[in-house]
Design brief:
Blueprint (H helix, E strand, L loop, with lengths): L1 H8 L18 H8 L21 E8 H6 L7 E9 L9 H27 L2
Parallel strand pairs: 1-2
Helix pairs in contact: 1-4, 2-4
Amino acid sequence: MAEGFLNSLDPELEVFSAGTAPSDRVHPKAVEVMKELGIDLSDNFPKKVDGFLQMEFDYVITVCGHAQENCPIFSGKVKHRLHIGFDDPAKATGTEEEVYAEFRRIRDEIRERFHAFYLEKIKA
């Protein structure tokens, strides 16, 4: 979701998203709740972080609580490392309505915090 928001803020940004243990596909509920805001993730697919370790980045941002401790060391040039943590919506439990509410809550937190990041660090 963070990749989708950053790309929607500035098409000039080169944004990559990857995980330490990616699933086979983007969670369908994430695709649905992002579509509610006009952001299409249907063509996105999870990638393993190992494929990016040699690249140069202005920012490497971890977003899940466990990722900060478990991310491999980037051997490429990284100017800034940040952690902007969020709950994992895929771990939400309850009724279908409650699970969707959790996806929306986390989506909105991601939107707010990455918009602030963009304004403070990228646009400034």
